[in-house]
Specification:
Shape: globular
CATH architecture of the largest domain: 3-Layer(aba) Sandwich
Distance between the termini: 38 Å
Bound molecules: guanosine-5'-diphosphate
EC number: 3.6.5.-
Order of helices and strands: HHHEHEHHEHEHEHHEHEHHHH
Number of domains: 3
Number of strands: 7
Protein name: Methylmalonyl Co-A mutase-associated GTPase MeaB
Helix content: 55-70%
Pfam families: MeaB (PF03308)
Family: Belongs to the SIMIBI class G3E GTPase family. ArgK/MeaB subfamily.
Strand content: 5-15%
GO molecular function: hydrolase activity
Structural class: alpha/beta
Length: 323
């Protein structure tokens, strides 16, 4: 199988679409033997990606994410850039179904020779989905894709995951910003490097007002010493207005911020997260969930302080481990 993986790596590096799709399916598989093969493949591809840019996009359902990604993607692909669209969809983690990254929502991009669209992996935890998307990004980059657009829905936790795996994060909002801002969690605004008032064509005056309000909000949210001051733009995914300006800002950001340093930090953060999860699973396995449950109850009932409860569990874990 090792030769099979080496061949797959070669085909993928040559930019073969089928090899990329196969590699992603391998990385998404939860079967243990596939996991080993996927990790082997990733080591073979290490350092083989060109210079890429990873852009995360979010916004509430209906704001126009897929229309926007289609317009931006076609704009870039027409210029000869190779564009991959991926999605992190928490609802697919829960239900096993996915509406995001659905190819039927991006008809022109789907058939563009320079584009590759992959729906969110379904099933598993949000952490698991995020991890597979991260690996899919590495595979797309090795296959020669220059721009990665990662879509997520603006309702909660998945934004933090996507912001942690992309170079910059774009938040789409609507012209009726007053109402809109209340629907967006402040935490998501804080993640945004660029905010875009979409659907500016529907009400140009309201769009300008919303842009001004967003600017003020972003100024208040951004620390003075931040390496980048988030900007507010307006656009129409339907007419294409504002799309080139958005891309110019992305390039300005890439020139301004040290992306290598940012990715270096993100990789460390990812490693720590995986280690924390794995260590916790291992701890639960060795200690037993029932024992952990009893210690938690003892803390809840006041028989032990929280610190004592943890120390007790650790002491019994050390004993088991040293046997
Ligand atoms: P998503 O749920 O965020 O992915 O939103 P969609 O891309 O599916 O868009 C929701 C609806 O808004 C669709 O009917 C789009 O055609 C429409 N839409 C998206 N962008 C624009 C825009 O810039 N202007 C107008 N007028 N409609 C838009």
């Amino acid at each position: 199988m090792t030769t099979g993986i080496a061949e797959l790596a070669d085909a993928l590096l040559a930019g073969q679409r089928r090899a990329l799709a196969k590699a992603i399916t391998l990385a998404e598989s939860t079967r243990p033997e596939h996991e080993g093969q996927a990790q082997h493949l990733l080591t073979l591809l290490q350092g083989r990606a060109g210079k890429t840019i990873r852009v995360g996009l979010t916004g509430v359902p209906g704001v126009g994410k897929s229309t926007f990604i289609e317009a931006l993607g076609v704009h870039l692909a027409d210029q000869g850039q190779r564009v991959a669209v991926l999605a992190v969809d928490p609802s697919s983690a829960r239900t096993g179904g996915s509406i995001m990254g659905d190819k039927t929502r991006m008809p022109r991009l789907t058939v563009h020779p320079n584009a590759f669209i992959r729906p969110s992996p379904s099933g598993g935890t949000l952490g698991g989905v995020a991890r597979r998307t991260r690996e899919t990004m590495l595979l797309c980059e090795a296959a020669g894709y220059d721009v990665l657009l990662v879509e997520t829905v603006g309702v909660g936790q998945s934004e933090t995951h996507v912001a942690g795996m992309t170079d910059l994060f774009v938040l789409l909002t609507l012209p009726n910003a007053g109402d809109e801002l209340q629907g967006i969690k402040r935490g998501i605004m804080e993640l945004a490097d660029i905010c875009v008032v979409n659907k500016a064509d529907t009400n140009p005056q309201a769009a300008v007002r919303a842009q001004t309000e967003l600017r003020t909000a972003l100024t208040l949210l951004t620390p003075h010493d931040a390496p980048w001051r988030p900007v507010a733009l307006k656009a129409s995914a339907l007419t294409g207005e504002g799309i080139p300006e958005l891309w110019a800002k992305v390039q300005q950001y890439a020139a301004h911020v040290d992306l290598n340093a940012k990715r270096y930090q993100q990789t460390a953060g990812w490693f720590d997260e995986l280690l924390r999860e794995a260590a916790w699973r291992e701890f639960q396995r060795q200690t037993g969930t029932e024992v952990i449950h009893r210690a938690r109850q003892a803390v809840q009932s006041g028989d032990l302080t929280a610190v004592q409860g943890v120390e007790k569990l650790l002491a019994s874990h050390r004993e088991t481990a040293s046997v």
